[in-house]
Amino acid sequence: MEKVALLKCTDYDVNNIEKKLREGFELLGGTSFLRTLIPENSKVLLKPNFLSIVEKGSPVITHYALFEAVVRIIKEYSNNIIFGDSPGSGDTRKAAEESGLMEVAKRYGVRFVDFNDEVHVELKNPLMYKFWNIAKEPYDADVVITLPKLKTHAMMYYTGAVKNQFGCIPGSQKAAWHTKLPDAVNFSKMLLDLNSVVKTSFAILDGIIAMEGNGPRNGTPKKMDTIIMGKCLTAVDSTAVRLIGYDDVLAIPILKAAYDTKWGTVIPEEIEILGEKIEDMKCKDFKLSRSAKVINFISPSLNNFVASLTAPNPVLIEEKCIGCKKCGEVCPEKSKVISFVKHNNKVIPKWKYSNCIRCFCCQELCPRGAIVTKNKPLSRMLGLK
Taking burial as the number of CB atoms within 10 A of a residue's CB, which of 33, 203, 227, 264 is the most buried? Predict the structure, then answer.
């Protein structure tokens, strides 16, 4: 039985967060648990979520106060703490500075690392991929503690503890993975392999202010008052998706992949939730990015065919578009999918949906939230909305 600490934390006061995190660690086993998690003289990497360069305190990224509270606790067990990421767009150092995490790190002697240097490694017994090019710093760390935000995600429905390590793929190589793996379940298996490569040790999910709707960048802040902690990443994610309204955890691609491959614990009955009761913490009006309703046929190929017919499309809100062409830059398929046309005295994107792989990088990284997902008529007819 995997253990997950579910904590109620109503604000970003660093002292309050620290108190709650200590309560969580105590529930999981206290000092002995932490000494096992962080052996003496360990090199500890804290992996926040820097999706892009955004302002301090934004719900897009890991909050600087939660980061500081984590650092305070980890410093009692190691003096060798580093932090870093490889965001979907923009310079990592600038993202760290704008987020407020760099200032916190300097005060506590935590070293910033970018993920530019990479190593070629081999994974034994992979789910999908044996050979990897990944960032050197997370691979070399003794302990990797991931600090994701609780957010909606157009491709993966939800993003949290497992997906946060996609930032361990250096820079532009992320686009290649989207091209290679347009199917969400196979993409999820890749993410599970990636977490096996970097040996992610522990997750602290920041859901004090989560993101609903058009996530993971352009959604709406949602007060959830939640922190979720645990060694099992899939157990943390399984708990999180139940809080926001996904009662069938196997409808979430990452959790379905983990269950099918026995990578990690997913089923609620196999997870012991410590602290708050999940029924008391559920949000009844959380706006999901995508429905998790699925239609299953005996034939996997038929399932994939129906999924391709019902997957939503990226759609432009023209009045929000500033013609920056960022969507075309981040699209893994580039001009095969997105071209630009003049309309109402400005240049706007136009999609060739027959070539679109539905990775939703355009929607995810649009700086103005001008791209949303829209279900097709067949999806609405089948109730997949």
Answer: 203
